[in-house]
Amino acid sequence: MYFDAATATPLHPAAREALLGALDDGWADPGKLYTQARRARLLLDAARDTFAQVLGVRPDEVTFAGSGSTAAHAAVLGGLAGRRRAGAALVRSAIEHSAVLHAGERHVRAGGTETAVPVDRLGRVDLDAWAQAVSAPGVALAALISASHEVGTVQPVAAAAAACREAGVPLYVDAAQSLGRLSVPDGWSLLTGSARKWGGPPGVGLLVVRKGTRWVSPYPADDRESGRFPGAPDLPAIIAAAASLHAVHETAAQEGERQSELVDRVRTTVAATVPDVEIVGDPVDRLPHVVTFSCLYVDGEALLTALDRRGFAVSSGSACTSSTLQPSHVLAAMGVLTHGNIRLSLHRDSTAEQVDRFLAELPGIVAALRAEVGM
Amino acid sequence: MSADTPVEVLNCLGQRCPLPVIALAKRLPAVPVGAVVRVLADDPAAAVDIPAWCRMRAQEYVGAIAVDGSPAFDVRRLA
User: Of residues B17, B23, B31, B45, which has the active-site annotation?
Assistant: First the structure.
């Protein structure tokens, strides 16, 4: 039972079908001047049109990158580089994806500055602090995740964008968890996504640069993707990503409602059946597919292992499950318990029966782990 | 002795999460209501998890200090 769609979603059937077809038709370099290349170019253009249509942007604003993380790096570093004359300050929420954090670290190492805007206990960015931070002198770029990838809380993007507009600062939105599920409010200048979050293959990132945005590629010169992202694009994967985005977009409302009801069931049942548990994130204004909770006195890694043994694949923000042994910066910024942490994220193949089985087994697993440490 | 002077110090240095919180949860009920227990813990999660535990269990998180260069967290038993 796979409950880690917020990391990677199983390949959508539409993506699989498109991928198999594209392996035969989409291998040539779309930049060349012969028949095979022209066919590849047509396929790439069609995929770009699909993205543009779903996102409500112009096709020439859509760039394909090697992954969601590289797209985020390009958005942050390119957005800062394009506004070098305005200043060297990056403003971001405290709960951005690690790709944004790492791009920010590089910016600071290179002499720039960075302000992390705090969030409340539910994981929502503090809008007053945000408005103050973006209106400070020398701000080149502001970055806000559309909805928390760890706890699901939807961020006030429209209000944050209004504050940016007032301050004359471009806004970058990391929409990795929202694309194909929730619409993202307007007002941003840069947006990124990751195809494996919506049932596309891994290795396809999306970078949207709105017309008029000052953005300079942080990479050595390359004429692919209008000079925005280097290297030959993985055309079959891009075609599959487009097919999948189109398919999930069509059914997003009803699938979102179905998954959101399952998430409500998890939130209610876990709170009722597992003692000393903290369900984190906004219970209402949240992603439809993500639910996160922390169990007191439980080792996160032991919990993941015990769940895996019973056939449940979930994710954790606990320190013991990370390679750096640091607790999740998102949970820490919210001030909520970081140990014994579990994130379930659902997808189109997640059924009520699977969720019920998880809910039936969880209390016993947690109790057994607590008993091992005398709690 | 001030009201904030710890009556007991739990040395959890070198212990990984959630062991410092477990040690605190086991020990706090043994001290009088109003007394402070100090937890020495260098696991990075302790700085978040000890205040969170206090909130969940309705105990008072007094604050963090450094003791001989190690992070320490004071908690007062309220009930």
Answer: B17
